[in-house]
Amino acid sequence: MIRLNTLRNAVPLLLLLPFAATAENFEVVIGQGGNNFSPSTLTIKVGDTVTFRQVAGFHNAMSAPGAVTSFRCGPGGCGNGPEGDGGGGTWQQTVLFPTQGSVPYLCEVHGQSMSGLITVNPVPVTLQSFDVD
Ligand SMILES: [Cu+2]
């Protein structure tokens, strides 16, 4: 039988601990100076949120086929009904990205000419060693 004492002064144990990363919010501005998303490419990590904020024009923001997270947001909210339709004025909606991968998106009103890409990276992991004592 192995007792804990026999491990004293033995080996440092390597433990894999998830890094205590805090979620962040990012902003994508819609319609500033034209039909565009700014920034049009964004790199975030799992658990972060993105606030789509329209400042001008008539738009929405909808994930494209193949996106690891689906959303469709407009002035009325987010969803597949009229609430996600494009509209004018100023509005903002916040979307959570819980899954690693690529999220291409576009404005349904303007199509591929008004599109963007969000890359969702895994939460960083750090290695830490501890001595058993
Ligand atoms: Cu648009």
Number of domains: 1
- Coarse structural class: mainly beta
Please report the distance between the alpha carbons of the first and last residues: 19 Å
Q: Radius of gyration, Cα only, in angstroms?
A: 22 Å
Name given to the CATH homologous superfamily:
Cupredoxins -  blue copper proteins
Order of helices and strands: EEEEEEEEEEEE
Number of beta strands: 12
Q: Can you count the helices?
A: 0
Helix fraction bin: under 10%
Q: Mind telling me the CATH class? A: Mainly Beta
Pfam families: Copper-bind (PF00127)
Protein name: Plastocyanin/azurin family copper-binding protein
Signal peptide: 1-23
Domain Blue (type 1) copper: 28-121
Write a brief structural summary.
The protein has strands at residues 13-18, 25-30, 37-38, 41-45, 49-54, 61-63, 72-74, 77-78, 91-96, 101-107, 111-121, 125-130.
Which features would summarize this protein structure in a list?
6-stranded mixed sheet, 4-stranded mixed sheet, 133 residues, mainly beta, 0% helix, Immunoglobulin-like, binds copper (II) ion
How does this structure look, described?
By secondary structure, the protein is mainly beta. The chain has one domain: Cupredoxins -  blue copper proteins (Immunoglobulin-like, Sandwich), CATH 2.60.40.420. Helix content is 0%, strand content 47%. It contains no helices and 12 strands. A 6-stranded mixed β-sheet has the order 4-11-10-6-7-8, with no helix packed on it. Strands 3-2-5-9 form a 4-stranded mixed β-sheet, with no helix packed on it. A hairpin with a 6-residue loop joins β2 and β3. It is elongated, with a radius of gyration of 22 Å. The two termini are 19 Å apart. Bound molecules: copper (II) ion. The site of copper (II) ion has 6 residues, from loops. InterPro entries: BlueCu_1, Cupredoxin.
